[in-house]
Amino acid sequence: MGEFIGRGRKARRCYGFDEVALAPGMITINPNEVDTTFRIDSKTYKVPIMAAAMDGVVDVDFAVKMGKLGGLAVLNLEGVQTRYENPNEVLDKIAHANPEEATKLVQGIYNEPIKEKLVSERISQIKKHNVPCVVSAIPQRAKEFGAIAQEAGADIFVVQATVTSVRHISTEYKALNLGEFCRDIKLPVVIGNCVSYGVALELFETGASALLVGIGPGAACTTRGVLGIGVPQVTSTIDCAAARDVYFKKPGRYCSIITDGGMRSGGDICKAFACGADAVMVGSAFARTKEAPGRGYHWGMATPHANLPRGTRIYVGTTGSLEEILFGPARLDDGSQNLVGALQLSMGSVGAKDIKEMQMADIIIAPSIQTEGKIFQQAQRVGMGK
């Protein structure tokens, strides 16, 4: 498998969303009659599009609104919400910083210590509205914050790092034993991020309920440029979904695949499901909502790294309400609004009555899919030409 890229060295061809398309099905279904629900363990959720654990995307109010609309928003337990009593003051500073000083400012802001009482407080603020509470932390802090989150009533705990593996080697600190963590905590655990079949299979065997798939595709992430690491999302989703299906045949336990990042439009989201995703996680689409705490700005999770930031602050603007982004009516022509409606219509067009059938949609290699016949849109920078 693969082709030679030099003497004695082969490389595998991988694909991203812009290089593939979905072929219509033999039958079509009324979009209002398809089922978009997904599950994590025994719980089901109406909206299979999750909001990423980024400070420019999710705060308490956003998580509550998302929950009331039937979806999940992940609160970063190591962000400004748990470092500052009044995070709005900090978010204002980030939004008003010029591009030259933004990264340095963000690095300084995240030097403020995390306050454990704020971890419990933020979770309680979400839970009092009777909506699901999903929170995240890096592996080094997972045991500490997992215990607090469980006590405070969180529903799902996410262990998330740029690259996660079961066999992490370090002499400077004790690596988190993911198997022990999943056994000890009484919450469903989502682990990320990974992009390959072998790693996904090992992560499933820890007892994880779901995996986040994607390294570096996010709009505000610079990991691929800084580290040179990443696998395009079509290939990584298909590979990890294959691991899910193989694992399911062993113990009979189904674990979900969540494609994380790289989706600019409803079309990309539809392709992710066709590649095998059970749900997707997006950041920039939600950073553009009126409810987002970023004031029209969005920055990567690894932006505040003290020595090697792997994210940048970008301006995405504010284009509509969270409800409009999810359910419409769409006011823009670029596929960035009414994402659930786009998914329903795509499922109906390929003849998929639910997410499992959508995962079997016919995928074609189509490098011209973004450009064929779109000369006027490109010239006028509208629709698919933006």
Write a compact overview of the structure shown:
Helices cover 36% and strands 15% of the residues.
Total DSSP helices: 16
Radius of gyration: 20 Å
Mean pLDDT: 92
What is the 3D form?
A: globular
By CATH, the topology is: TIM Barrel
Oligomer: single chain
Q: Main beta sheet: strand number and arrangement?
A: 8 strands, parallel
CATH architecture label name: Alpha-Beta Barrel
In what range is the share of β-strand residues?
15-25%
Structural class: alpha/beta
CATH homologous superfamily grouping: Aldolase class I
Number of domains: 1
Low-confidence spans: none
Strand order of the largest sheet: 6-13-12-11-10-9-8-7
- State the helicity in percent bands: 25-40%
Description:
The strands form five sheets. The chain has an eight-stranded parallel β-sheet with strand order 6-13-12-11-10-9-8-7. The chain has a two-stranded antiparallel sheet with strand order 1-2. A two-stranded antiparallel ribbon has the order 3-16. It has a single domain, classed as Alpha-Beta Barrel (TIM Barrel), CATH 3.20.20. It is α/β, with parallel strands linked by helices and 386 residues long. Helix 5 packs across helix 6.
